[in-house]
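Dear all,

This email documents one entry for the complex benchmark we are building for the journal club exercise. For each entry we list the sequence lines for every component of the assembly. Then comes the predicted three-dimensional structure of the complex as a C-alpha cell string, followed by one or two observations. Please use this as the template for your own entries, and keep the labels exactly as they appear.
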Amino acid sequence: GEVEVLHWWTAGGEAKAAGTLRALVEQEGHTWKDFAVAGGGGEAALTVLKSRAVSGNPPAAAQIKGPALQEWGELGFLANIDVVADKAGWDKLLPKTVADIMKVDGHYVAAPVNVHRVNWLYANPEVLKQAGVELPQTWDAFFAAADKLKAAGVIPLAHGGQAWQDATVFEDIALGLGGVEFYRKALVEADEATLKGPTMVKVLTTFKRLKGYMDPNRANRLWNDATALVINGKAAMQFMGDWAKGEFSAAGKVAGKDYLCAPAPGTEQAFSYNIDSIAMFKLKGDNTAQLALARLIMEPTFQETFNLNKGSIPARGDVSMDKFDDCAKRSRADFDADAKAGTLVPSMAHGMAVKTDVQGAFFDVVTNFFNDDAMSAEQAAERLAKAVKAAK
Amino acid sequence: MSLESLSHAPRGHARTLIHLVLIAWAGFYLLPLVVMLLTSVKPLEEIRSGTLLSLPHALTFEPWIKAWSSACTGADCRGLERFFVNSFAMAIPAVLISTAIGAVNGYALTKWRFKGSDLLFGLLLLGCFIPFQVVLLPMAQTLGWLGLANTIPGLVLVHVIYGLAFTTLFFRNFYAGIPDELIRAAQLDGAGFFTIFVRILLPISAPIIVVCVIWQFTQVWNDFLFGVAYSGNETKPVTVGLNNLVNTSTGVKEYNVDMAAALIAALPTLVVYVLAGKYFVRGLTAGAVKG
Amino acid sequence: MSALEIRKVNKRYGSVHVLKEIDLSIESGEFLILVGPSGCGKSTLMNAIAGLDEISDGSIHIGGRDVTHVGPKDRDIAMVFQSYALYPSMNVAENIAFGLEMRGVDKARRAQEVARVAKLLQIDHLLERKPAALSGGQRQRVAMGRALARQPQIYLFDEPLSNLDAKLRVEMRTEIKKLHQRLGTTIVYVTHDQIEAMTLANRIAVMKDGVLQQFATPQQIYDEPVNMFVAGFMGSPAMNFIRTRVVRAGSHYGVSVRNGAGRDVVLPLPERGNGLSAWVDREVVLGLRPEQITHVTPHRLERPLVTELPCTVEVAEPTGPDTLILIRMNDQEVAARIEPHAQAPVGSPMPLAFDMSKAVLFDPATQQRCH
Amino acid sequence: MSALEIRKVNKRYGSVHVLKEIDLSIESGEFLILVGPSGCGKSTLMNAIAGLDEISDGSIHIGGRDVTHVGPKDRDIAMVFQSYALYPSMNVAENIAFGLEMRGVDKARRAQEVARVAKLLQIDHLLERKPAALSGGQRQRVAMGRALARQPQIYLFDEPLSNLDAKLRVEMRTEIKKLHQRLGTTIVYVTHDQIEAMTLANRIAVMKDGVLQQFATPQQIYDEPVNMFVAGFMGSPAMNFIRTRVVRAGSHYGVSVRNGAGRDVVLPLPERGNGLSAWVDREVVLGLRPEQITHVTPHRLERPLVTELPCTVEVAEPTGPDTLILIRMNDQEVAARIEPHAQAPVGSPMPLAFDMSKAVLFDPATQQRCH
Amino acid sequence: MATAIDAVRASARDTGFRDTLQRWLPKLVLAPTALCALVFIYGYIGWTALLSMTNSKMLPSYTFVGFDQYVRLFENERWLVAAKNLVLFGGLFIGVCLLVGVLLAVLLDQKIRSEGALRAIYLYPMALSFIVTGTAWKWILDPGLGLQKLGQELGWSSFRFDWITDPDRAVYTLVIAAVWQSSGFVMALFLAGLRGVDPSIVKAAQLDGASLPRIYWRIVLPCLRPVVFSAVMILSHIAIKSFDLVMALTGGGPGYSSDLPATFMYAHTFTRGQMGLGSASAMLMLGAVLAIIVPYLYSELRGKR
Ligand SMILES: Nc1ncnc2c1ncn2[C@@H]1O[C@H](COP(=O)(O)OP(=O)(O)OP(=O)(O)O)[C@@H](O)[C@H]1O
Ligand SMILES: Nc1ncnc2c1ncn2[C@@H]1O[C@H](COP(=O)(O)OP(=O)(O)OP(=O)(O)O)[C@@H](O)[C@H]1O
Ligand SMILES: [Mg+2]
Ligand SMILES: [Mg+2]
C-alpha cells in the first residue's frame, strides 16, 4: 500500500529522523509519499491539511497533536486504529496521560512519537562559573544569580521575542511559582477566576521582571539564535524545551559538560510535556500501509532513533535510554516519576493544554504584556481572563 | 521615451549626480544580497560567531551544492533540484496564459468599449483585494470537484485566475494611451478584432509585456500559499521546497544552506529580469498620429 | 440610386452638439466636398460615414443599404485621416499594403499595388521607413497611399493635402481628379483650399457650427451663395460686404455707394426676375467679390453693368500674379484685385471698374440672400 | 548684428543626409519664410534652430551668440510644431499658459494673456477642453496660441495654418503680420502656401533635398528665380517651361515658338544687360508664368513686349475669380490665366496676349537661369 | 436555380452571423474573465461573508450567530493594532514606493549607459521570496548584528538603529523591507510608461522653458496617470496582503505591535481555529480597502471619458 504523511520535520536532525521512519515503512514494502510542510511550528502544515481535507483528499497520516486531535476526531476525519494498538498493547506501553491524548471517544486515532519536556533551563557552565553562580533552583535564586551575571557583563538570560517563546517562559514561571494545581486551573482549564487571581498577578510580575535580564535585541530573535548566545558564552541561561539540545550538539557541545540542563526554577517536581503524534485519517481505499505506519511508529527502533535525533524521549517507557544523553535520561526519570505523582502537565505554549483559539488568546496577552512597559500585571491578568473567555 | 531622443539630456555635474544617486540606490538594493551571498559561502561556525558583512575566512561552496542536490526537505534529501521542473511546468503556462488573456482583455476594454465595460473592469480589480487566504478552502473544494486537486494544471488554473486582474490592468492602462485612430484606420482597412490586436497593437506592446511577464512570473514562481495547498506530492513547486528547507521549527538552522537555497530558487526569476529587460525599448507610437 | 445618403444625422459629445440634422445625398460617382470653418463638424461627419463614431440620431445609407449599424469594416470605405493614424510598427510599404492584405489580396499583387501607389505619391524611396522617420508631408502621403491602394465603394479624404507644398498639391489634386474620372468612385473630401474645392467637386456642402448651409455645385456656391456665411466663406480674398441701400433708377434698380472721395454714385443691379421693389430705400448688404473690382481698361467698360469709379488706394498687397488693394466705400474697407503693373502708388487716386453683373444682395437682419 | 545666423549646418539621420551645408542669416525683426517640397528638411532646420535636434555639423548663432550647444530652453525661442505636440493632460488654457508659468509670470498675468491669445485665435470657447476633444484646426490654433502667448527673441512657425479654412487663414495671416509689425520679433516660418509666403516674408529661403536654392526677397524669388526649381516651385499655377531657341531679331533677341496652329512666331525678350549672344540658336527653356499669358484686350497690347498670338483652348478650368486654360506651344502644354468671361469654348481658337517683360530663360543642361 | 438562391441566402446568413460575431467578440473575449471573477472572486467573497456570520471554528460550519464575530473583532485589541498598522504601513509603503519608483525611472531614463544592469539590480528583490530575505533583513536591522553594530564599529558610537526591537517603530522596518522589495517593480512600470510618451511634447515643453525636472513633473508624469493607477493598485494589493513579510521579518512583534490584518486573519482562520472571526476580519479588511479604492477607481475610470 501507499501512505502519504503530512509532517513538518523538514530539516536537519528532524528530517533525518523522519527519514528513518520512511525507511522502515518502505522496508515493509509500502510506498511512503512524503508531504512535508515546514513553517511556524506547523501552522502552514495545518493550513494545508485543512485545504486537503476540504478538497476531500486528506493524507493518510498527519502530524497532529494535543487537543487538535480531539477536534479533528470530533469532525469525523480520523480513523480508528485500535486494531494496531490492541495488538501491540499500547495501553500498557504508554503512560495513561499520553494514551488519553491519542484517543477520541476511547479509540486510538493517533500514534505518539515522542515526549518533549518543555520546562528546561539551559546554562553555560563556563559563564556561570566566571560569575560565581550556581544553576538556580528557585526563582529567588534565579534573580540573585541573574544580578550577578549581569554585573559580570553577560546577558543573564538568552531569549527570543516570538510569542511562543514568551509563552514558554511564562508557563515555566506559572508552573514554578503557582505549582501544578494552579497551572492546571489557569492554563489548562482556563478558569476565569484563577486567571484574574493574585497568583497570576504574581506570575506575571515575575515574568515581566525577567525582561530586565534579557538583552534589548531579543525582539524577534529566533530561539536557536538565543541558544547560540548561550553556546558562545554571550549569555548564561535560556528557558527552552529539550529540542534546544540539537543546537548544542550541532555546535559540538556535550550535555552535562559544555552545557547544563535543569528543570526551570521551582518545577523540579513537575513536567510540562509536548507530545508529537501522527494522526491517521479515514481513507477510502486500502489502509494496510497506514496501519503499518501506526505500528512502526510505536516500535522501539523508530522511537529510539527518532528521539535521539530530536532531543526528546520516547513516548513508550520501555525503550532503553543507554544511547541518550544526561538531559534525556533525567527527562525520562522525571517523566516516569511525575506520571506516578500526577504532576505531568500539558504545555500551553506548545498547544497541548488548550485548543488553538484559547492558546492564541494566551499568546496575545502574554506577549503584549511582556513587550508593553506601560501595562501592569493586574491589567494583564484582567485582560487575560477577558481574552480567554472571548476566545472560548 | 523621450530623453533618449533629446539632444540636451543632462550633462556635466548633473550627470555625475544622477549616476551617484542611482548607484547609491543600487547599494541599498544590493545590501541584503551581499549579506546573503557572504553568508552562503561561510561555514556555519563562522556565521554563529562572525559579523554580518565580514568576508569568509574559509570560503566554501558546500552550502550551494548541498542546497541544490542533497539538503533534506522532509524525509527526502535530494535538495531543491527536483522542484525546479515543477515550478517551470507551473510558471511557464500560467504566465503565458494569464499574460495573453490579460492583453486581450485590456485591448477589448479600451478599444472596444461597451456599456458596462468599465464596470466589469472595476469589479475585476476590486476582486483582487480579497486576501488569498480567504479563497484557500473554497478553491480547494472547487479544484477537488474539477478533479484538478494536487495537479499542475490545477495550480496553473489558480494562478491564471488570480493573475488576470493585474495582467488586465497593465494592458488596459497601456492601451488607453494609444490613439484610437490607429484602431479606426485598421478597421477601415478591413481588419477584425483579433487582427487589429495582433498586427497593430502587439508590435508596440513590448514594454508592457515585459512588465507583465516580470510581475506574473515573479508572483507565480514565488507563490507559496497556493503552491503548498494545491500541489500534490510530486508536483510541489520550489518555494515549498525552499520553505521546508528554511523554516524548520525545532531543528538546527543551517543559515548558509538557507541562503544558498534562496539564491538558487531565485535564479530563474533573475534570468527573466535580465532577458526581458532588453525589450524595454522605446515606444513606437511617436510619429504615427499628429495632434 | 444614391451612393450615399445621410438622413437627419445628429451627433453629440456629451453636451456638445456637433452635427445638427445633417441631410445630404449624393449619386454614385459624385465628388462631394465638405467645407466649413475649423471645428464645424467635418471630420465628425466623415467619421460618422465611415462608421467610426456612433451617431446619436438619424441614419446613413450607402448604395441604398442602411448601414447605420454596420461596422466600419463592412462598409467598404477607405479613408485618409486628418491625423494620419499611420501604424507605427509598420514601415511605409506595410502601411500601404495592410488594407489589401486584410482583404485577401495575394502578395505579388500587393507589392505591385504598393509600388504603383508609392510612385503616384512620390514616396517610392521611403518604402522601408517607419512613420516616425518621415516628414509631415511624407506621412500625409502615406496616409493617402493607404486609401488609394484599395478600391472601395466610397473614399473619404479628410484634408489629405494640407501638409503638401503647392506644387505637389497641384500634382496630387490632378491625380485625385484622374482617379475619380477613371474609377468613377464616390468621393467625400474635406478641404479648406478653395481651388481644390472648386476644381474637384461635383457638389460642395458648406457647413457651419454643425449645420449644413448650402449644398450645391461649385459654381452655384460661388455665384449664388444662399447667405452671407457661404458668400464670405468661399472665395479668397473674401467677398466684400458693403452696407448700402437699394434705389430705383428708372425701370432698373441700383445701390448707392459713396466712394472714398465722398462722391455718391449708383451702381446698377443686374436683373434677376425677382422684384426688388420691396427693398427700395431699405438697407441691404451688397456682396461684391474683389476680382469684380479692378483697374479700368477701355474694353472692360464696354460690358454692361460695369461702372467706373474714382477711388484711392489705401493699402496694396502684391501676391505675385495679382495685387490686392484696399479702398474705402461707404466708410468700409473694400478689397479689389488688379494686375500688378496697373497699381497706382498707395495714397494716390485710381479709377476702378465695378462689374456688377455678379453682385448679390443680402438681408442684413437674416443674412440671407435677397437678390 | 544678425538675429539668426546659420553657418554650414549639416544634419544626418544615420545614412540619410537631410540638411546639406545650410548657410542663412537674417537681421533682427526680419520675417524669414522657408519653402520647399515635402521632405526637403524644413522641419529639420526648424528643430535645429530650436535646439531640439543636435546638428551634425556647423554652428547656429542667435543674436550674435553661438548657441550650437545651448539647450532649447535657454535659446528663448517659441515654436509651433507641425505635429502640434499639445500636452495631452492639460486643457487648452493650461497648454497656452504653460510657457508663461515656466518663465515665472504670475497667475493674473497668465490668465490675461491666455484670454488675449484665445480671443485672437477664436478659441476662447474651448479653453476648458482637452486637446483630444478638439478638431484638427482647433488643435493647430492651440499650438499657435502656445507660441503667441510668449514674447521670445525668435518665433518658429512650422506650417501653422495648414489645417485652417481659407477665411480663418487670411485672418490669422493678418494677425501674424500685425504681430510682427508691432513686436518686430524675428520670425522663421514654414509654409507651402504661396500667398502666405509672398505676403508675409521679408525674405524667402527655398530649399530642395536639404540644399538651399535661393535666399532672397519674395519679389526676387518670384521674378528672378535662380533656377528652374525655384521658378517652378513658387507660383500657382506653376510657371510654364517652354523648350525653345534664342533668335536674334535686329538688335534685340527673341525666342521662337510655334503655337498650336503650327505658326512660328518670335517672342521678344526683355533687355537685361547680359548679352544673350552666346545663346543665339541654342536651345533654352523659356519661363513664362500663366498670368503673363492672358486674353487680348486692346490696351494690353500697347505695352511693350506684349505680343498677340492665336491659340486654341484645349482645357479650361474655372477656379472662381479666374479661369485657367491650357494651350499648346512647341508641342508642350502651356497654362494661361484669363478672366472667366473672356473664355472661348474648349476646342475653339482664342487669341492670347503674351507679356514677355518678365519672361526668363534657363539653361536646359544646368537648369540655372541664363537670362 | 434553387441551389443558387440557397447559396446566396446561406452567405447572407453567414455574413449576418459574422457581423454579429464581430459585434459580440469583445464581450465574448471578456466573458471567461468575467465568469472567473464572478465565481472565484465574488462567489468566494460571498461565501466568506456567510462564514463571518457563523461560529465556524476549525473548519467551516453553518451555525449562524449574526454579527457576533464582528462585535468580538472590535473588542479585540490585536485587531485594532493590526488595523492601525495597516493604515500606517500601507500609506507609507505606497507613498514611498511611488516616489522611489518614479525617481528611479526618471533618472534611469537619462541615457544611462549601464541602464540594463541597474534595472536588474533594482528589480532583483522581487525575485527573492521573503522566506529567506526576511532572515537577511532581520540581521541587517538587528541592532546587535547589523547596521547599528556596523555604524558603531566604524566609530559612530552614538549611532542607533534599533527600530525592529521597538514596539512603536517595528512597523517602519516593515516599510523599509517592503519598499526594498517592491519599488524596483514600480520603477519598471514607470519606465515602461515613460517609453511610451511622445517625445515631441517633451520638445515642446523644453521650448516653453521648462527645466528637466519640471518637464517630468508637469508634462510627462500627468501623461502617466494610468501608470500611477496601475502602481497604486499593485501596491495596495501588496500592502494589504503583506503576510510573508511580517512573518519573516518581525513575526508581528515585538508583542503584536507590528501585526497586520493579513497576519491576523491568517492566524485566526487557520492557526487558531476561529474561522468565523477570521472571515469577519477578512470582510472588514475588504470593506475598508473598498472604501478607499472604490472612489479612486471611480474617478480614474470616469476621468478617461
Ligand atoms: N528619424 C529620421 N530618420 C531618417 N530620416 C528622417 C528622420 N526624420 C526625418 N527624416 C527625413 O528627413 C527629411 C526631412 O524631413 P523634414 O521633416 O525636415 O521635412 P520637411 O521639409 O519638414 O517636410 P514636410 O513639408 O513634409 O513637413 C525627410 O525626407 C524625412 O524623411
Ligand atoms: N470628444 C469630443 N468631445 C467634445 N467635443 C468634441 C469632441 N471631438 C470633437 N469635438 C468638437 O466637435 C466639433 C467638430 O469637430 P470636427 O473634428 O468634426 O471639426 P472639423 O470640422 O473637422 O474641424 P477642422 O477643420 O478643424 O478639422 C469641434 O468644435 C470640436 O471641438
Ligand atoms: Mg477635421
Ligand atoms: Mg515638416
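Observations: Residues 240-362 of chain D form a domain with the OB fold (Dihydrolipoamide Acetyltransferase, E2P) fold (CATH 2.40.50.140). Residues C 42-43, 82, 158; D 135-136 surround magnesium ion (ligand 3) (CB under 6 Å).
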